[in-house]
Amino acid sequence: MSAYRFSGPVTIFHDQHLPEEAVPVGYAALIDALNLRVPLPRELSAISPRHRIYVQDGWRISTPRHAPSADLEGHLTFALKYEGVDLGVLKALFKTTGPGPIEAIVRSRPTGSYSRRLWFLYEWLLGTELDLPSAGQGAYAEIVDTDLQWGADGVLVGRQRVRNNLPGTPLFCPMIFKTEALRAYAERNLAARAQQAVAAVPADVLARTAAFLLLKDSKSSFEIENEHPPHDRIHRWGAAIAEAGRHPIDVPELLRLQRLVIGDDRFVQMGLRQEGGFVGEHDRSTGMPLPDHISARHEDLASLVEGLIAFDRGAARHVDPVIAAALLAFGFVYIHPFEDGNGRIHRYLIHHVLAERGFNPRGLVFPVSAAILDRIDDYRLTLESYSRRLLPLIEWRSTDRGNVQVLNDTADYYRYFDATPHAGFLYQCVERTIEVDLPAEAAFLQSYDAFRRQVLEIVDMPDRLLDLLFRFLRQNGGTLSRRAREKEFALLTEEEIGRVQAIFAQSGLAAAGAGHV
Q1: In this predicted structure, what is the pLDDT of residue 516?
Q2: Nearest Cα to 1, choosing from 97, 72, 66?
Q3: Taking residues 92-100, what's their average pLDDT?
Q4: Which end of the chain has less neighbouring CB within 10 Å, N or C?
Q5: pTM above the 0.85 mark?
Q6: Which residues form the Fido domain (predicted)?
Q7: Positions of E strands within 88-180
């Protein structure tokens, strides 16, 4: 008889409706039976009496032949086999069960791949050895099933005869599922497509394209935070982005980036937070915090940042670059280690990984922040995909300073999370910069150069006036306004104005993106 009481058929599980009456299994059953305070996986599993497998409303419904034995070993084996590795659930479970039940599973199946994986994960997550002799036989089993989730190259571990291909360390290791959409993105080889996109662009045009896209990204990153700083701060941050990937991430580097981001530090505590933190608003009448997201406890920041640094220097260099960028950057923003500047540094870390891995063409920065700004609602939904599930688990109280003080242990919530939506969103943004922004900007500059050459064949004028003429035409739908004819360009004849307007109309520049010249 099982030591834990597992649920029978239900139609509602933890306030979530099932598509039909079914028995929760795997992680769902374990969370319920052991009363684990962890974020529910994005997709839960259940067994239906009907012989049909389908996914609906966040549930994967399987058939009776998939049903595990109603005990700890059965549900853990089901989870690893069909649901992948959920480190947050597993660590909470191991801390609840203690070593005895896991040792019993391994002793009963000493050569079983799932028992050896559980054995490794227990010791890896809790940093303590079970009372078990080293495995003497059995083929090496991968900890991460790479048919289900992204893993790293991995190293062999003789004690359990496993390959540790987890994409991180016990201090920081989010996971990403290999959805059909993410598989398709990875197979498109966007890095090669970016190289192809720039191959036919003249060197001088490419250099100007790179400069514009860099400035666009820097400006957009501030706009996402609803900030409109002076141009010198935008250019300084752009210069920092241009150097992304040249320096490994460590605490001094993060502090350097924060100093660059914060223009006036008189009212901002620089460095790692010394108190709680949240993203949200305050009640206008009471000043009570109204959090949308609660940051990691300041007591946990040192170890969490250590985990980010270890990830950047290890697994980030051995998994798909966009996957690595999503794990590092979104992990950072959930931790929120600084009082201010987290959002822009979070987006800088995307550039850092892509540049360090040679994903983008040399000297070129993808304007990822601009793509995010254009899809700002999707960006917020992506951030909320985890924050919404995290918030109910955090116990907190309001402080006298209108901040939050977290009362329970939350560090693991930031170490281990499902970053699948984040990777999908980032892939969409990167693809957009390669397929749309990069070619559009290069085409614009080439058309603009042709426009300038043709206008100079009609009338000689300095660059300043040429640029002004172009802006006036853009602003007035391709026609030079009466005011411009009478003032700045009063010396042009009607015949010259007509020819200039015709050149502009034929150039296609009227439909080009704003922000140029």
Answers
A1: 53
A2: 72
A3: 98
A4: N
A5: yes
A6: 249-399
A7: 141-142, 155-157, 162-164
